[in-house]
Amino acid sequence: MTVSRVSRILGAFGRGLAALAALLACNLAQPAPTPIPTPDLPTVEIIDPPNNVQVIDGTTFAFDVVARDATQGVSKVELYIDGALLNQVNPFDVVAAPVFRAQINWTAQGVGLRAVEAIAYRPDGQRSDSALLTIEVIPAP
Predict the structure, then answer these.
(1) Residue 60 in contact with residue 86, Cβ under 8 Å?
(2) How many other CB atoms sit within 10 Å of the CB of residue 61?
(3) Chain-wide mean pLDDT for the chain?
(4) How far apart are CA 92 and CA 29, in angstroms?
């Protein structure tokens, strides 16, 4: 192979690399896609009892739950114990309220840890992220 032939091959290879670099640079110059805003979700919080509280088996007490939604309001709150629906509560005199506070009674049953979950909903069915806590039911003395 002659020097001139090697030179032509290397020249062609170099032009190919230059073309590839130009193509890649063109793709990099594209504007970033416009992000799609995520909707504001309703929020819910279990105010009382505190997480990891101990409760004596057979004791009745109330969960104090506050839900908020500035767009459509809160139409209901559901409270679950160990994945089973305990109760669903709705605002009393309106379809939905921007701030809705509810007291939900429960009698502690069965010694052991209980997973508690609260979920708030808008009238259109949009749900909040869950508020979670754990309750330990202990035997009566």
Answers:
(1) no
(2) 16
(3) 85
(4) 56
Q: Tokens 């979670």 label which residue?
A: 132
Count of CB atoms situated within 10 Å of the CB of 138:
14
- Quick check: is 130 in a domain? yes
pLDDT given at position 10:
46
Instruction: Tell me, yes or no, whether 66 lies in a domain.
Output: yes
* Cβ 101 vs Cβ 65: under 8 Å: yes
6 falls within a domain: no
94 assigned to some structural domain: yes
3-state secondary structure (DSSP) of residue 50: coil
Cα 66 to Cα 131: distance, rounded to the nearest angstrom: 10
Total structural domains within the chain: 1
Whether pTM exceeds 0.70: yes
User: Cα(57)–Cα(69) distance, rounded to whole angstroms?
Assistant: 35
CA angle 98, 101, 106 (to 5 degrees): 145
Which domain does 55 fall in, by range? 43-138
- Relative to beta strand 99-107, strand 84-89 is unpaired
DSSP per residue, 22-47: HHHHHHHTSPPPPPPPPPPPPEEEEE
